[in-house]
Amino acid sequence: MDPLTGTVVFFDIGGTLASVYISAGGDRIERLAVYPDVLGILRGLRQRKVRLGVVSDPGPLPAEEVDRALAEVGLLEFFEPDLVVYGRKDSPRVFEHAAERAGAADRLLFVGEDANERAQALRAGMLVAPHPRLAEAVLNGQAHLRYLRITVPAWHATEEWRAALRDLPLLAVHTTGPAGTTVYAVATTSAAAQLDDLGFRVDRLGVEDEPLTTDLYVLRDDRQTESGFLAPDGNSQALLGTGTAAGTVLASTDDGLVVAVPAGVSVETYHFDRTRHGHNLRLVPTVQALARVDEAPPTPAPEAVPVTITPEERQVIEARTRPQDVSDHLARYTGAAPAGEGAELITSRHIQHPDNAAAVDALVADLDRIGAGRFVVRRHSFPHEGQQLQNVEAELPGTGLDGVVLVTAHMDSTGALHPGYKPSLDPAPGADDDGSGVAGVLAAADAVQALDAALGIPRRAVRFVLFNAEEHGLVGSLAYAGDQASLGDPVVGVFQMDMIGWDVLPGRTFELHAGITGRPVVEERSLALARRIADLVPQISPGLPAPQVYPHDGEPDPAEARSDHFSFQLYGHPACLASEDLFAGPGSDAPPAEMNPHYHTPADASINADYASDIVRAVTAAAWFTATR
């Protein structure tokens, strides 16, 4: 008899089995897209006589709607009706209910991507796995799961090693190094021993089974980086030197501290002093982590034509991206004006604050209004720290050209650098970070809709996306970009606006970031987008100087992996970031950085709308050019 006979495996849905897109009204699943390897895994388990079920939180959606969506994509047939259980997963209760329905099962396993939910399943007596790919290995008893750092010897750094890793019960969550030859992964201890035998250098990080109830992050101690080698001015001793927190640090690397954040603890707890923009990064499984470093998905490329816009295009863009337009959009998301007619003020967009959900609703309403019935507006759902959060997406469908162009920003905010800050209660207007980007996306959406209505020329689809949980390590954009990769959407370019509103010192400066280490093809394509913005600045925003473009003359890009554009670069898509002057450089003769002194405090309550609107115009023109040429 197969040793798995008598076993029951429960799966979460969103983020584990499929991506979930919900209607603008929040009452219908508009798109459930099954991840590529899921059907094969489910078939394999069922062939081994494993009984399959679901434990998932549908939120406000009725169970019948979730069943309908599962049936439409061919998932529902894999699950026994009595083993499909819906409910909140913030306690062991729903897992205990699922166990009761399973009856006299030999073993129960819950597979879900959220560490908080896995911890509750463990409390209910279940085994847990963080990904369907590891489910059978856990059931087979192939030893424990643990975090690994795998290094390919320099003299063997050919592409064959990537295939060797893909053949093992192993999840790659991060690659680093000039050629991506250091891989962070979750794997069985048996797989680690196989890697030893194959000649990889394997560091076992943390303790056995730590991946069951933790999420992995890279935390950048920018204060220590500035102080330099052998200078003791950093954050680690104060925050991570003693107590429980000390045990969460797995490694100290050039990228930052590798930390396993336990279930029930927010990464907000590790908010270092004097951090720069984008100081943490959530490490999640990505299908591209083990792709060739020069590999990029095939996408339609715009024609090689001079980067210019017509007087008609310039006139429409200028009319919809005025400083007052940016200010009006901003006011609704920073508590300066009601979010809508009869709506309350949004005082914070922090993911732990109730106003975050109000901001999502307001963005859906704004984009629907701006689209004048022509935008397809949806909510993209994803889990994080025990919550179901949502990104907001609005698409103007294409007319004659292939591919999709994205204009993006992040919607959430934080005041974590303010002493005694309470995320669920205290204000966090986040006017610059990233209310300025939110206002920019809304103004760009208005301009593109007007351009299309006025000119009616062939173009690619244009999508406007606001990401949630960026402040917790690019979580929302990583979920969104990963799902887009699974769907195979041909992304031609991503234009991210993050902190575009602070300019006080004389001499306007702004930055464009396109760097990604070890991915030369992706970096060059991303640089092409940045150069497109730079070429359009004198045509559409003559009040701005030439931007500071990174990377430059071999200097690394200081904003690499620090904003949502990086999530798309990970999957091989060209993407660039427009920002205020956040970093010194490039080059020794460049002006110093002009960092917003109110960064991550409740005092981040205003922006320079003239300056922000100039950046918005240039980004909008570049996005329109990319969509139409």
TrEMBL record:
Domain Peptidase M28: 391-613
Region (Disordered): 582-601
Coiled coil start-end: none
Domain of life, per lineage: Bacteria
SUPFAM superfamilies registered for this protein in UniProt: HAD-like, Zn-dependent exopeptidases
GO molecular function, one term: metalloexopeptidase activity
Matching InterPro entries: HAD-like_sf, HAD_sf, M28_fam, Peptidase_M28
One GO BP: proteolysis
Name of the featured protein: Peptidase M28
